[in-house]
Design brief:
Immunoglobulin-like; five-stranded antiparallel β-sheet; 188 residues; alpha+beta
C-alpha cells in the first residue's frame, strides 16, 4: 500500500511539473539548418485563438522578420509594391494603424522595423490584429503573447541580431556656426 501511495504521489508531482515546465503553449519553436551554408533559421509560430489559419511568425536568419500569414488573399494596392492597411492593439492600449507590405499573393504581411515591434510583443500579453481579406469585410484576430520571453532562446536572439549594441548616430559636427542668443530663446 505504501509503495502504491508513493508511486501515486510521485506521478502527481511529475504531472504537476510537466504542466508548469511548458512556459508558452501558444508558441511553437522551430529550427531549420540550411544544407547549403549551415546557417540556422529560428522561428516562433503563434496561431490566432480566433482563426488557426492566421499565424504570427517571428523568424530569424541573420536578421529579424515578423510576418502575419493571413491564410488567404488580402486586399492590397500597388504603391511601388503591394501594400495594405492593418490595425493592431496591444492589451488595453490605443489601436495603431499602419501600412504593411504584402509579401506575396497568399496574404503574408511583413512588418517594417520589426525590432521595435518585437519589443512591443515582448511587453504585451495579447494583441488584436485587424486586416482586410480580399472581397470580405475587415477581420480581427487575437494572438496570445504570454511566454514569448521564455521561448526566445539565446541562439535565436543571436540569429536575430538582437544582442548587438544599438547603433547611435554620431554627434552633429559644428560648421563654424556660433550659437546666437535667439537660437536658444524660448518662443513666446
Amino acid at each position: 500500500m505504501k509503495t502504491f501511495l508513493l508511486m501515486f504521489a510521485f506521478a502527481a508531482l511529475l504531472a504537476a511539473q510537466t504542466q508548469t515546465t511548458e512556459p508558452a503553449p501558444n508558441w511553437k519553436l522551430y529550427l531549420k539548418v540550411d544544407k547549403l551554408d549551415n546557417v540556422p533559421t529560428y522561428g516562433l509560430l503563434n496561431h490566432s485563438s480566433d482563426d488557426p489559419d492566421v499565424t504570427l511568425v517571428i523568424r530569424c536568419r541573420r536578421w529579424l522578420e515578423i510576418v502575419v500569414f493571413t491564410g488567404g488573399i488580402v486586399y492590397s494596392i500597388w504603391k511601388q509594391g503591394f501594400i495594405t492597411e492593418v490595425r493592431y492593439k496591444f492589451d488595453d492600449g490605443v489601436p495603431q494603424e499602419e501600412i504593411w507590405p504584402v509579401s506575396d499573393t497568399e496574404g503574408s504581411l511583413a512588418k517594417n522595423q520589426p525590432d521595435l515591434f518585437l519589443s512591443k510583443l515582448l511587453a504585451a500579453k495579447t494583441m488584436l490584429f485587424q486586416f482586410l481579406p480580399y472581397r470580405e469585410g475587415s477581420k480581427t484576430v487575437t494572438f496570445e503573447l504570454a511566454g514569448l520571453k521564455e521561448v526566445m532562446t539565446p541562439e535565436m536572439v543571436t540569429a536575430c541580431g538582437l544582442n548587438k549594441p544599438p547603433v547611435t548616430a554620431p554627434p552633429a559636427k559644428s560648421r563654424g556656426h556660433k550659437q546666437k542668443p535667439w537660437d536658444t530663446a524660448p518662443l513666446r
